[in-house]
Write a structure and sequence with these properties.
80% helix, mainly alpha, 2 domains, 0% strand, 17 helices, Growth Hormone, Chain: A
Length: 482
């Protein structure tokens, strides 16, 4: 429980700093990735830079959420900051795509502790009605990072080094850690039970096997695909068995069995798939197909990050008037509307069209995601709040994980079918440079491949809208801070 010695404004400031670090990480890395791949090579591993981060984040999110219910939020988030900053420092020293992917795994573990715990801290500090105001503060952070991220990414890549897109996390994370140590205090007594580390390990193996299976489908032999499929099936089966026999299951069926939580988590999973497809491949399309600069690609992507806080702020203002159910459905239907625009763009389209689609997806995510977290935190007790919050973020992260791998597999498969199974760093550099017309055949193949990924993204977006129709009517009650 939060101690009276806690300074709510300054503890919130620590959460804001963490949110800024995570938000700017998303836009700055995506903007710089085409240049990173151009220098390090390994286009076939492009999606794994995102998948590796999401893999460890997904596998640890629920564990850290439950752990924060037992040993306190501050301990968990400080540990997460240390690991995230270590991974960030190492990413800047990466000498190849495999080494960058390995260091992104470390970053993901830290993010798995930071994201659910920071959101849970907000739930501890403020009631549902107060959280509407807090959403406005956090929205401003996302808007600021949306502007600074692409700008910083473009400037660092062009004038310094892409390594600094990772190293900028170090001073930001250090500031957040200081604020948490100084101003967040808790009264947490010893609790019975334990964290099921075996379930977490088996789950990580299962997710990794499924990701490898999807990736291999575009290039591996039938025997290799069969072996990976068998490993994935066995790991999933072992996970289910372990969850049923564990007194402290990693995924609480009691929580996931509630209709509101189940529907919100399902929508989060599908929206996570859509979001990662946009985040991962929009910069490639704008630079490689539309022949625009990295800065233009960054701002097209940042429209999503701008739309997200606008949607979150507006949903908070409309909460009393419309209620959670209507707000969640508005968000769910806005996502496929935005995703549908990407099925219409081609090499001759204006970047403004891509920016509009990005903004609409972000607007829908703002309505859907922020209201889902507020609702879930309100219908559970304090001792379940960390687990419930992390379960939602886990579902969204799981969607990110499968989405990055699925869309990466589709891209590799379509490129291979067009005769570009192994794209060199020189070819990619030719695509990402304005006026690089020598790689016209590859550009056409990339355009066709990305069109298929955008069609898939739109179909998943329709699934988000359908799931929100299952969300029941919810009545929130005011509650004092914990």
């Amino acid at each position: 429980m939060i101690s009276k010695a806690t300074s709510r404004p300054l503890a919130l400031a620590a959460v804001v700093v963490c949110s800024f670090m995570i938000a700017i990480e998303a836009t700055i890395v995506s903007t710089a990735m085409p240049q990173i791949v151009g220098e390090l090579g390994g286009l076939q591993l492009y999606s794994w830079v995102f998948s590796a981060f999401l893999l460890t984040q997904t596998a640890t999110t629920v564990v850290f959420g439950k752990l924060s219910d037992r040993i306190g939020r501050r301990t968990v988030i400080l540990w997460g900051l240390v690991v995230f900053l270590l991974g960030s420092a190492l990413c800047g020293f990466a000498w190849s795509m495999p080494s960058l992917i390995a260091f992104r795994l470390i970053q993901g573990v830290g993010a798995g502790a930071i994201q659910p715990t920071s959101m849970t801290i907000v739930g501890d500090l403020y009631s549902a009605h107060e959280r509407g105001r807090i959403q406005g503060y956090l929205a401003s952070v996302w808007a600021l990072s949306a502007v600074l991220g692409p700008l910083a990414g473009g400037l660092l890549v062009q004038h310094v080094s892409w390594a600094w897109i990772f190293w900028v996390n170090l001073p930001i994370g250090a500031l957040a850690g200081f604020l948490f140590i100084r101003f967040l205090h808790e009264n947490v007594g010893p609790k019975e039970g334990h964290i099921d580390h075996l379930s977490a390990g088996v789950f990580a193996i299962a997710i990794a096997a499924v990701m490898a299976d999807l990736t291999a489908m575009s290039s591996a032999s039938g025997r290799e695909i069969a072996a990976l499929t068998l490993i994935a099936a066995v790991a999933i089966a072992l996970f289910v068995v372990q969850e049923r026999r564990s007194p402290e299951p990693m995924i609480s069926m009691k929580l996931w069995g509630r209709r509101t939580i189940a529907a919100a988590n399902a929508a989060a999973l599908l929206s996570g798939v859509t979001m990662i497809g946009l985040t991962t491949f929009l910069p490639v399309f704008v630079q490689g197909v539309m022949r625009q600069s990295a800065l233009t690609a960054g701002f097209a992507l940042s429209a999503m990050v701008l739309g997200w806080p606008i949607g979150a702020t507006l949903s908070a203002r409309l909460l009393t008037r419309l209620g959670p159910q209507i707000i969640l459905r508005i968000g769910g239907f806005m996502i496929p509307v935005g995703a549908g625009l990407f099925t219409l763009i081609d090499s001759g389209s204006s970047p403004w069209v891509a920016g509009l689609g990005s903004a609409l997806v972000g607007f829908g995510m703002g309505f859907l995601s922020s209201q889902s977290i507020t609702t879930i935190q309100e219908i559970v007790e304090w001792g379940e709040r960390g687990a419930a919050t992390s379960a939602f973020l886990f579902a969204r992260s799981l969607g990110n994980t499968f989405g990055a791998t699925l869309f990466g597999a589709i891209l590799n498969w379509r490129l291979a079918a067009a005769g570009f199974g192994a794209v060199s760093s020189e070819q990619l550099r030719g695509l990402t440079q304005s006026g690089g017309a020598a790689a016209g055949g590859l550009r056409d193949a990339l355009a066709g491949s990305l069109h298929v990924t955008f069609l898939t993204m739109f179909a998943v977006g329709l699934g988000v809208a359908a799931v929100t129709l299952a969300i029941p009517k919810i009545k929130l009650k005011p509650r004092s801070p914990a």
